[in-house]
Recover the amino acids of this structure.
């Protein structure tokens, strides 16, 4: 169903009075080879910090986190469970990779799952960084879906994510002061939105960093990351509501009703 995501976003934006809405980048975490490397030489290797290339979109991404192979065990003693901080995987049911995470057995859509880490000394760990893609100078919208996978609720920890982009010269711009915190209830996606300005034609990369700086309980899922053009003026209040419908439609079309229900682990 993710093939309809770009259309859902564009329709919502244009309905809100935003001219020439075009999705220039979309990541739904489909098409990556998450198989067992023992039998699949092209699969992502344990510990990797790069995704390989998606067979669906041609995208790729990098992260400062360490990869865990889904389907290889979810308990604390399993080498590929998500118990260790600073780890990532692509899967559908959080409980299948960590036995303390929310159980969503009916979910059929992939998401990026992360066990957050403490911030490195003097720097920030990149949770997710896209491949580069071409843009022209102008205003851009971004959106992504964010889920509390479990333990934020139990420990009182909140994952604090910030969106950023890097231009062709490697200059990173944080989209400030907007930051996104995981929702209190686990297993429910919330769509985060914002805007940023690109000053020159060229190629950019976009990404997310976790500024929470916590290890215990800092567990979150990300899906449906989108960048689009289209902001040419400030919409009227009624148009803002329609615009939010457009962004919300991106998530709802992709997730369906099943992701809106948190099933007890």
């Amino acid at each position: 169903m993710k093939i309809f995501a770009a259309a859902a976003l564009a329709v919502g934006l244009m309905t809100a009075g935003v001219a020439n809405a075009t999705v220039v980048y979309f990541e739904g975490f489909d098409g990556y080879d998450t198989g067992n490397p023992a039998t699949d030489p092209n699969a992502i290797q344990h510990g990797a910090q790069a995704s390989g290339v998606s067979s669906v979109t041609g995208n790729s991404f990098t992260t400062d986190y360490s990869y865990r192979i889904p389907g290889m065990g979810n308990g604390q003693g399993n080498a590929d469970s998500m118990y260790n901080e600073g780890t990532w995987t692509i899967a559908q049911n959080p409980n299948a990779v960590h036995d303390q995470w929310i159980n969503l057995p009916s979910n059929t859509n992939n998401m990026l799952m992360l066990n957050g880490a403490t911030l490195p000394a003097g720097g920030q760990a990149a949770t997710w960084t896209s491949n580069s893609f071409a843009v022209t100078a102008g205003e851009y919208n971004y959106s992504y879906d964010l889920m509390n996978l479990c333990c934020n609720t139990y420990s009182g920890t909140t994952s604090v994510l910030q969106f950023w982009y890097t231009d062709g010269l490697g200059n990173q711009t944080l989209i400030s002061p907007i930051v996104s915190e995981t929702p209190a209830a686990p297993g429910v996606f919330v769509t985060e939105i914002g805007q940023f300005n690109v000053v020159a034609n060229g190629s950019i990369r976009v990404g997310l960093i976790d500024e929470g700086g916590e290890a215990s309980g800092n567990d979150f899922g990300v899906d449906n990351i989108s960048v689009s053009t289209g902001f040419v003026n400030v919409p009227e209040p009624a148009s803002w509501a329609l615009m939010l419908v457009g962004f919300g439609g991106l998530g709802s079309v992709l997730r369906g009703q099943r992701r809106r229900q948190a099933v007890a682990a």
Notes: The chain is about 15% helix and 30% strand. The first strand starts at residue 22 and ends at 27.
